[in-house]
């Protein structure tokens, strides 16, 4: 049970649709009003952005016109998914300190992006991560590989978000799962297809501001209820949790050392290889703005994760201790993801609960839009414009392909969201992070910092990491045990990063060294042509 | 190595803040590794209250400091790097 905590952020709990009317459901007028307002505002943004999103530069990178501050807020929005707002508090209610392990781990990821990646990325690239790698390496193979890795990460992430979104919207607004899928799918297609990166960024900014405001308001109300005495809050949380003091020891770090290290590594390093996060750095004018944007993103993101220390314990102390929010078995009504929603109801009645529900909905929309845009860019820019249609593609045809790809990815994710409705998709986020740590991140770090990297080495290392991460996740606890129902995993670690990331680095380095020994000029040629 | 002398190779390697970036990344890793490592090596330390009779544990404060360190380190890096590149 304790192995697969990473995926909790998926939001895909065993959610039951039966939510009593007095604390949720579709009849909350504030929730519905806010929900409609968010849809209208975001569509308005898209309409405004659509007039600008007619060049490739606008579509993929908002013309490089987003300021560092704006991009920072949007980046924080990309990082804080609905899983962070709802999933972490639910996890704290269920297993105590574990939720905070994730808050700390995710918070440490973004600084890495500014220290090592952001500025170089902005200097070398235009629209996608593959642009950066292609400045150093032979273009066709590296673009194909990077596009595949991007699509793998984006699709797993997207399916997990869609399934979580369907269940959440059903709980929050009483909307049928199928309609929820179609609604989220349709809105995200509209944002991305017509508004490109401009609309996606502004939707993300609106959501981030709402999310930070909601998190701050709930946290202050929680503290106010305990007379602004944090110790009293924690004491109450300990008293409420069935394990009492025992809940302050995270189960995530109670198993084997290797398991703890592998999880810790993944939480910290996964961020720096996520393509939808990296793509944000192409929206700002220069490397300095890229640096400034991560500064603001870190302030917002870390601030939010620090609030989880109040909000999470608050949910435990207030919601998990109140029979009104519990079902017959003493579990949180509607599942762990409802903990934050119940908390807002306990603190501010229907009004606050409606606001927070709508913010959760905005969060889902913004995250799926960012993912779809990233996937569509991999198809239209890397695969179509630079490879398949290298000789015939024009800017117009490239944008047309990216819009088609947006519709294709949107439809695919709705279909997969429906197909996986009753499946355990918790492993998918874990898998996306493991693939990010084991394929895109090693290639990016080596390409940016090691002159010896050759194309063959990069592909060998990337493929090893990608295949290794997928294979070992299937053979490990998240799929082999939790999905396929086998009693014991064939591979013990979840996520497998501790094995697959070093393997990817070593393979890339070893093959590059052998490659250069055989043909010393091979390493130089692409650099000269860049 | 002849490759390294190629002036066309990778102009980014000359960014003055490159070394600073690695130093900051190392400090961040150390802080986070200390947080995870103490949980692995000595869970009892992490679950001890910060003062007798208190509910807040060492890990709670350590975790918050870890999060605070991301803000301080990033802020320091951005200030220094902006100064370095403003020549």
TrEMBL record, chain A:
<protein>
    <submittedName>
        <fullName>Sodium/solute symporter</fullName>
    </submittedName>
</protein>
<dbReference type="GO" id="GO:0015293">
    <property type="term" value="F:symporter activity"/>
</dbReference>
<keyword id="KW-1133">Transmembrane helix</keyword>
<dbReference type="Pfam" id="PF00474">
    <property type="entry name" value="SSF"/>
</dbReference>
<dbReference type="InterPro" id="IPR050277">
    <property type="entry name" value="Sodium:Solute_Symporter"/>
</dbReference>
<dbReference type="GO" id="GO:0006847">
    <property type="term" value="P:plasma membrane acetate transport"/>
</dbReference>
<dbReference type="GO" id="GO:0015123">
    <property type="term" value="F:acetate transmembrane transporter activity"/>
</dbReference>
<feature type="transmembrane region" description="Helical">
    <location>
        <begin position="457"/>
        <end position="476"/>
    </location>
</feature>
<feature type="transmembrane region" description="Helical">
    <location>
        <begin position="208"/>
        <end position="228"/>
    </location>
</feature>
<feature type="transmembrane region" description="Helical">
    <location>
        <begin position="177"/>
        <end position="196"/>
    </location>
</feature>
<keyword id="KW-0769">Symport</keyword>
<feature type="transmembrane region" description="Helical">
    <location>
        <begin position="426"/>
        <end position="450"/>
    </location>
</feature>
<comment type="similarity">
    <text>Belongs to the sodium:solute symporter (SSF) (TC 2.A.21) family.</text>
</comment>
<feature type="transmembrane region" description="Helical">
    <location>
        <begin position="401"/>
        <end position="420"/>
    </location>
</feature>
<feature type="signal peptide">
    <location>
        <begin position="1"/>
        <end position="20"/>
    </location>
</feature>
<feature type="transmembrane region" description="Helical">
    <location>
        <begin position="257"/>
        <end position="282"/>
    </location>
</feature>
<keyword id="KW-0813">Transport</keyword>
<feature type="transmembrane region" description="Helical">
    <location>
        <begin position="30"/>
        <end position="50"/>
    </location>
</feature>
<feature type="transmembrane region" description="Helical">
    <location>
        <begin position="100"/>
        <end position="118"/>
    </location>
</feature>
<feature type="transmembrane region" description="Helical">
    <location>
        <begin position="144"/>
        <end position="165"/>
    </location>
</feature>
<dbReference type="InterPro" id="IPR038377">
    <property type="entry name" value="Na/Glc_symporter_sf"/>
</dbReference>
<feature type="transmembrane region" description="Helical">
    <location>
        <begin position="294"/>
        <end position="320"/>
    </location>
</feature>
TrEMBL record, chain B:
<dbReference type="InterPro" id="IPR007436">
    <property type="entry name" value="DUF485"/>
</dbReference>
<keyword id="KW-0472">Membrane</keyword>
<feature type="transmembrane region" description="Helical">
    <location>
        <begin position="20"/>
        <end position="42"/>
    </location>
</feature>
<dbReference type="Pfam" id="PF04341">
    <property type="entry name" value="DUF485"/>
</dbReference>
<feature type="transmembrane region" description="Helical">
    <location>
        <begin position="54"/>
        <end position="80"/>
    </location>
</feature>
<protein>
    <submittedName>
        <fullName>DUF485 domain-containing protein</fullName>
    </submittedName>
</protein>
<keyword id="KW-1133">Transmembrane helix</keyword>
<keyword id="KW-0812">Transmembrane</keyword>
């Amino acid at each position: 049970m304790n192995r697969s905590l990473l995926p909790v952020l998926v939001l895909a709990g065993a959610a039951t649709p039966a939510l009593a009317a007095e604390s949720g459901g579709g009849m909350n007028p504030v929730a519905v009003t806010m929900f409609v307002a968010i849809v209208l505002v975001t569509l308005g943004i898209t309409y405004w952005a659509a007039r600008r999103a007619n060049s490739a530069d606008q579509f993929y990178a908002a013309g490089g016109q987003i300021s560092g501050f704006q991009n920072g807020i949007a980046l924080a929005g990309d990082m804080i998914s609905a899983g962070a707002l709802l999933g972490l508090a639910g996890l704290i209610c269920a297993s105590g300190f574990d939720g905070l392990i994730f808050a700390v781990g995710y918070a440490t990821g973004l600084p890495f992006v500014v220290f090592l990646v952001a500025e170089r990325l902005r200097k070398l690239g235009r629209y996608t991560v593959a642009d950066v790698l292609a400045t150093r390496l032979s273009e066709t193979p590296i673009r194909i590989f990077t596009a595949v890795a991007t699509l793998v990460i984006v699709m797993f992430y997207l399916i997990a978000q869609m399934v979580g979104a369907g269940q959440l919207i059903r709980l929050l607004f009483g909307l049928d799962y199928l309609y929820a899928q179609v609604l989220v799918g349709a809105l995200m297609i509209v944002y991305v297809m017509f508004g490109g990166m401009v609309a996606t960024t502004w939707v993300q900014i609106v959501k981030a501001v709402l999310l930070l405001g909601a998190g701050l308001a709930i946290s202050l109300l929680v503290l106010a209820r305990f007379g602004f005495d944090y110790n009293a809050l924690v004491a109450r949380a300990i008293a409420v949790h069935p394990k009492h003091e025992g809940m302050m020891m995270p189960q995530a770090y109670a198993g084997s050392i290797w398991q703890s290290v592998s999880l810790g590594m993944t939480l910290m390093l996964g961020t720096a290889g996520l393509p939808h996060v990296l793509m944000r750095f192409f929206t700002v004018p220069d490397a300095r703005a890229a640096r400034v944007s991560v500064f603001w993103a870190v302030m917002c993101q870390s601030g939010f994760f620090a609030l989880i220390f109040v909000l999470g314990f608050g949910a435990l102390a207030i919601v998990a201790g109140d029979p009104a929010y519990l079902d017959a078995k003493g579990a949180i009504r509607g599942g762990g993801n409802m903990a934050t929603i119940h908390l807002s109801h306990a603190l501010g009645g229907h009004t606050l609960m409606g606001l927070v529900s709508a913010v959760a909905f905005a969060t889902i929309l913004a995250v799926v839009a960012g993912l779809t845009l990233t996937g569509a860019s991999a198809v239209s820019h890397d695969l179509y414009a630079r490879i398949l249609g290298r000789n015939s593609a024009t800017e117009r045809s490239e944008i047309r392909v990216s819009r088609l790809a947006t519709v294709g990815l949107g439809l695919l994710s709705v279909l997969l969201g429906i197909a996986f409705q009753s499946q355990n998709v918790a492993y998918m986020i874990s898998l996306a992070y493991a693939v990010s740590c084991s394929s895109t991140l090693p290639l990016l770090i080596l390409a940016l910092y090691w002159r010896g990297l050759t194309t063959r080495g990069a592909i060998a290392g990337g493929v090893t990491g990608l295949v290794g991460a997928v294979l070992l996740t299937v053979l490990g606890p998240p799929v082999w045990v939790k999905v396929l129902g086998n009693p014991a995993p064939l591979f013990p670690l979840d996520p497998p990063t501790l094995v697959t990331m070093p393997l990817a680095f070593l393979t890339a380095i070893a093959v590059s060294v052998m490659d250069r020994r055989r043909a010393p000029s091979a390493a130089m040629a692409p650099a000269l042509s860049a | 190595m002849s490759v390294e002398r190629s002036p066309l190779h990778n102009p980014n390697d000359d960014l003055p803040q490159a070394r600073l970036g690695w130093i900051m990344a190392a400090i961040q890793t150390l802080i986070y590794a200390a947080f995870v490592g103490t949980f692995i090596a000595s869970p009892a330390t992490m679950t001890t209250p910060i003062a007798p009779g208190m509910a807040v544990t060492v890990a709670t404060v350590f975790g918050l400091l870890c999060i605070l360190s991301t803000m301080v380190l990033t802020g320091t890096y951005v200030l220094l790097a902006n100064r370095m590149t403003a020549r």
